[in-house]
């Protein structure tokens, strides 16, 4: 049993449970008139509200791709023109007690954030966090692990919106849930998340501490060791203390030596190496590493945009305005696809940092295009 619209879903719910419109309205917390209008397709509602209301009666909303959309602005309009929505009943009365449901929500948050950015998803992420906090006190480790994954996905959304305090709280929730479930790699994932949030807040020593705590866990997989090692290497590079380059390069070399990393993790490790190499003046090696990361994230707008932004900044450190300008034109084309505070911050840093080459024609054009693209979003 499934529906292709909210109106169809409401009709199926009333039929299967033998509810009147008034009874359904009471369960949803809306008026009977609203139920009547939506059921007859005379009223539309936003996708976020639809998801929230359906969860109250044990149904969930799924979004599946049906093709590509050429117009980036339409594509970013919450996938309205680029996805098919399916509404299906959950197997349990309380969907947030269903580990599979929580995993599906986490996947949806991650994939949608990577597609359009985290800002439009903040209210959804906060709501999910409120629902899963109770999982700390349950004895079902499978549920705790699923809740930890959803908490991490929500933290990344909040982090992308630069709501660092809320992101850190979500990361702490993920950490506690993973520890209660006694799952080493999920605990490591939570430490990596906390490292990332601290790094973006500018607290690089705290970021390094979280990475070191993760690396101290017993029986880590090679991928977890590699990811935490590269996070530690980047944090040490940004601390810029005596001996930072040697220590940072050592951690990056260690990360590359671990076998079994997924393609995404390998791309992150390679790109992060580029960031560190750029900071220490190894510009040619840095450019190659960042170019490789950008190629991997082709088709994932947010991640590709952020890595291109890192590559632009590395090009400016290398005093290569021609390459920086070419990459800035690409950033301007990506900008309409996503709504991300991190991306906006990166674009603003690039516009400010490129001012010294403003008299160079190609750089002048690139700056104007990037500024126009980010201001129009």
Summarize the structure.
With 377 residues, this protein is mainly α.
Throw out a few tags for this protein.
two-stranded antiparallel ribbon, mainly alpha, single chain, 434 Repressor (Amino-terminal Domain), flat, 377 residues, 2 strands, 19 helices
What is the strand and helix layout of this fold?
Elements: H1 6-17, H2 21-28, H3 32-39, H4 47-55, E1 59-65, H5 72-76, E2 83-89, H6 99-116, H7 122-132, H8 141-160, H9 164-180, H10 184-200, H11 204-215, H12 222-239, H13 244-257, H14 263-279, H15 283-296, H16 301-317, H17 321-334, H18 341-353, H19 361-376
Antiparallel strand pairs: 1-2
Helix pairs in contact: 1-3, 2-3, 6-8, 7-8, 8-9, 8-10, 9-10, 10-11, 10-12, 11-12, 12-13, 12-14, 13-14, 14-15, 14-16, 15-16, 16-17, 16-18, 17-19, 18-19
Could you explain the architecture of this structure?
This protein has 377 residues and is mostly helical. It is built from 19 helices and two strands. Among the domains are: 89 residues, 434 Repressor (Amino-terminal Domain) (Orthogonal Bundle); 70 residues. It has a two-stranded antiparallel ribbon. The radius of gyration is 23 Å and the shape is flat.
């Amino acid at each position: 049993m499934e529906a292709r619209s909210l109106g169809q879903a409401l009709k199926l719910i009333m039929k299967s449970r033998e509810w009147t419109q008034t009874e359904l309205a009471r369960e949803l917390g809306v008026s009977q008139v609203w139920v009547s209008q939506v059921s007859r397709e005379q009223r539309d509602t936003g996708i976020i509200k639809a998801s929230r209301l359906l969860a109250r009666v044990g149904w969930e909303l799924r979004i599946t791709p049906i093709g590509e959309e050429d117009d980036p602005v339409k594509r970013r309009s919450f996938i309205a023109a680029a996805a098919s929505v399916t509404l299906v009943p959950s197997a349990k009365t309380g969907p947030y007690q269903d580990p599979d449901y929580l995993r599906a929500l986490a996947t949806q948050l991650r994939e949608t954030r990577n597609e359009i950015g985290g800002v439009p998803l903040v209210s959804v992420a906060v709501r999910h966090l409120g629902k899963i906090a109770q999982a700390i006190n349950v004895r079902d480790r499978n549920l705790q692990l699923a809740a930890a994954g959803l908490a991490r996905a929500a933290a990344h959304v909040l982090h992308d919106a630069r709501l660092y305090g809320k992101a850190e709280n979500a990361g702490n929730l993920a950490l506690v849930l993973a520890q209660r479930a006694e799952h080493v790699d999920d605990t490591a994932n939570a430490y990596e998340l906390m490292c990332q949030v601290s790094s973006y807040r500018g607290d690089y020593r705290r970021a390094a501490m979280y990475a070191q705590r993760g690396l101290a866990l017993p029986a880590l997989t090679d991928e977890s060791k590699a990811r935490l090692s590269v996070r530690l290497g980047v944090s040490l590079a940004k601390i810029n203390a005596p001996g930072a380059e040697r220590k940072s390069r050592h951690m990056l070399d260690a990360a590359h030596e671990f076998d079994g990393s997924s393609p995404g993790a390998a791309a992150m490790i390679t790109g992060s190496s580029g960031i560190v190499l750029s900071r220490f003046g190894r510009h040619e090696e840095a450019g190659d590493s960042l170019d490789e990361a950008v190629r991997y994230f082709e088709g994932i707008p947010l991640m590709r945009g952020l890595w291109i932004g890192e590559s632009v900044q590395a090009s400016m450190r290398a005093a290569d305005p021609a390459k920086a300008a070419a990459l800035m034109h690409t950033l301007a084309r990506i900008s309409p696809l996503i709504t991300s505070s991190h991306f906006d911050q990166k674009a603003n840093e690039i516009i400010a940092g490129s001012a010294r080459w403003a008299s160079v024609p190609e750089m002048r054009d690139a700056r104007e295009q990037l500024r126009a693209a980010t201001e129009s979003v």
